[in-house]
Amino acid sequence: MGHPELEKHPQFWQRPGSYMGYYFMLSPTINTALAVLAVKNSTFFLHSSFLCLDINGFVFVCSGKPCPPFKIVILDEADSMTSAAQAALRRTMEKESKTTRFCLICNYVSRIIEPLTSRCSKFRFKPLADKIQTQRILDICTKENLLITNEAVSRLAEVSEGDLRKAITFLQSATRLTAGKEITDVVVTEIAGVISKETLNSVLAACQSGLFEKLETVVMSLINNGHAATQLVNQFHDLILEREDLTDKQKAAIAEKLAEVDKCLVDGADEYLQMLSLFAVVMQQMTQNN
C-alpha cells in the first residue's frame, strides 16, 4: 500500500534467464512480511499456494507436497547477520541462483556488505503519504463504528509521521480513552505525547517579548507539564522553518542551535538548561530586528 513502484518489477523478474535477488530497505515500522508476500504472489502466482515455507523460530517438516521449480528464501533482519555470515550467504546465492530467489529485508543499508547489495534489486520503502493514511484510518473508523472528527484524522496522520501502525495504535488508545465518545484532535494530541500548537505559540511569544524572566517561566511550565525536550526540539524545527518573519540567516542560526541541543540531550544533558539555552538563541534572533 502506497508503494506502486513494487508492482512494476515482477514482469521483469519473470523474463527467461533473468536472475536478481530482492533487497528491501525498510524502516523498522514497515510490515516486512506483507511487503514480500505481495511481491511473491504477484511474481510467482502459479505456485504461490505452496511456495513459501515459514521458518520463524520453529522448523516445520515438509508435508510431502511437490516442490515448485524455484524457491524463495526470505531473510528478515538481514542487517543483523555478521560479515562472515553474509559472505557465506553470497556464495550460497551464487550456487543456488538457478533455483532460488533471495529476499533480504533490513533497516540499515550500511550493514549489508557490498557483494550482496550488488547482486540484488533494491527497494526503499518510504513513509506513507498523509492521503493514504487518512483513507485507511477513515476505513477503520467506518468498519469499527467510531466517532472521529476530520481534524482528529488529520492529526493522526500528522503525528504518526508516515507510520500507519503507529497511527492505528494511537487510534486504538484514543478509542479506549474516550469510551465511545467522539475522538477529537485534542485527544489525539494528548495520546501521542506531542506538544500542542498553543503551547509552542506561547513559547514563541515569550521569545518575542525579549524578557528572560518570562522565558524562564514558560520553560518551567513545559517541564512541569511533562513535555519531553526531545519532542520539543523535533516540533520546534518545523515551526521555525515555517516562520516568514525570520530570514534564512536567522533560521540557520536557530537550526544550528537545535542540532547542538539535540546532541546534548542524547548525551544526557539537563533538559531545563538545554531548553533555556535554545530559547535564548531564538530570542536573540527574533528580537535583533526590533
Protein model, in words:
- By secondary structure, the chain is an alpha/beta fold.
- The protein folds into 3 domains: 4-124, Rossmann fold (3-Layer(aba) Sandwich); 130-192, Helicase, Ruva Protein, domain 3; 197-287, Zinc Finger, Delta Prime, domain 3, CATH 1.20.272.10.
- The protein is 54% helix and 8% strand.
- It has 13 helices and 4 strands.
- Helix 3 (83-95) links the parallel strand 2 and strand 3.
Summarize the model shown:
One of its GO terms (cellular component) is DNA replication factor C complex. This protein has 13 helices and 4 strands.
Q: Could you name the key traits of this structure?
A:
290 residues; alpha/beta; Rossmann fold; Helicase, Ruva Protein, domain 3; Zinc Finger, Delta Prime, domain 3; four-stranded parallel β-sheet; 4 strands; 54% helix; 8% strand; extended; nucleotide-binding; Rep_factorC_C; Replication factor C C-terminal domain-containing protein; ATP-binding
